[in-house]
Amino acid sequence: MASRIKSDPDLNQVLFEATPCVQKVTLNRPTQLNCLTFEMIDQLLRTFEEYEQDPQVRAVIVKGKGKAFCAGGDVVRVIQFMLQGDLFCVMEFYRKQLTLDYLVATYKKTVVFLINGAVMGGGAGLSMNAKFRIVTENTVFAMPEASFGHHPDVGASYFLSRLPGHFGEYLGLTGAKINGSEMLACGLATHFVYSKDMKSMEDALCEELLLNTSSKSDDVSRIIKEFVHNPVLKEGSSLKRLDAINRCFGKDTVEEILFALEKEATTMDDKWITNAIKSIKFASPTSLKISLRSIREGRKQTLRQCLNREFNISSHIVLRSFNYNGFYEGGKAIFFTKDKKFKWEPSKLEQVHDAIVMQFSEVVHDDRWGYLELPERAHLKGSKL
User: Does 256 qualify as catalytic in the annotation?
Assistant: First the structure.
């Protein structure tokens, strides 16, 4: 199908700066927290493909302008297209976004993400599977999709499922926010650098790649390490409660997780438990069950398999398969009316049957819709990606 999304270069939603050997990419919607639009994803995908084939490009540095790196995909525009009935435009958005995420995760060349500020949803999908993920004291990570009737996609079932214990289930079901030091401690980030040092580190990386034509990723690591710090986790960090998180979020079902949290709350007065219970009761029951199953499945799958399954789930959500209207309902209540008055159907966890949850992962049986066709990456033979 021919592309129905046209990039408008005059919008300057992504800025590209060419320096010798290094291409700098800046997400440029600061007043919208750099949320990814159709045009941005289309432009990023084409440009990353060009960079990978260009022998002059040895590395790519990606950052965001303003106070955020990227707070997610442009959900408002997605829902607007859905309300207009242009579901195939939404499909193309998801297809290109996941293709971009896979390309970056499997990139042949060095990609360095400078994550200074919010990184959520689509921003996490773009960056969290890359080799270099540098955070600062300003970084905040979250995957809040279940709160508005969706699910942690963009490869989240892969990177969340590989966090210590059941910390990934905790983040995916509650949408809890963690900071840069916590991201480093749990493995979501590779390095922690103070924001005041980011520009100096960026310049040092460019200089190294320019002067030393034989530089490899180990040399990039060496330069970055000259600027890193090892922050101390705050006393209130949820990572310091990992034993309790594992006891609760290691349960088989969302109902059992919620029951375990409520039981834990009777013996432990801790803010993270109160917030976790509140978040789970606030979110879509169907989304919670889809999310838990997706993360558990992701633990056994490659990134490619995870992205394919996530595309299927998102497709069913957009098409309102199995009478699920949660994304419309949640998106309207958070992004349009902003009253956060949800009418989830089903409204209770016990009303969401496992047989239905499993069907969300299946390919949409509609020739017009199809399935995700990720590019073959010959250099990945034997890789877990």
Answer: no
> Which one of 64, 73, 125, 180 is the catalytic residue?
73
Q: Give residue-wise pLDDT tens across range 156-210.
A: 999 999 999 999 999 999 999 999 999 999 999 999 999 999 999 999 999 888 7
Specify whether 145 is catalytic.
yes
The catalytically annotated residue of 74, 92, 153, 182 is 153
Catalytic residue among 42, 92, 101, 145: 145
> In the annotation, is 39 catalytic?
no
pLDDT tens digits along 338-371 = 888 888 999 999 999 999 999 999 999 887 787 8
The per-residue pLDDT for 71 is 95
331 in catalytic set: no
HEC string of the chain equals CCCCCCCCHHHCCEEEEECCCEEEEEECCHHHCCCECHHHHHHHHHHHHHHHHCCCCCEEEEEECCCEEECCECHHHHHHHHHCCCHHHHHHHHHHHHHHHHHHHCCCCEEEEEECCEEEHHHHHHHCCCCEEEECCCCEEECCHHHHCCCCCCCHHHHCCCCCCCHHHHHHHHCCCEEHHHHHHHCCCCEEECHHHHHHHHHHHHHHHHHCCCCCHHHHHHHHHCCECCCCCCCCCHHHHHHHHHHHHCCCCHHHHHHHHHHHHHHCCCHHHHHHHHHHHHCCHHHHHHHHHHHHHHCCCCHHHHHHHHHHHHHHHHHCHHHCCHHHHHHHHHHHCCCCCCCCCCCCHHHCCHHHHHHCCCCCCCCCCCCCCCCCCHHHCCCCC
The pLDDT value recorded for residue 130 is 93
pTM check: above 0.90: yes
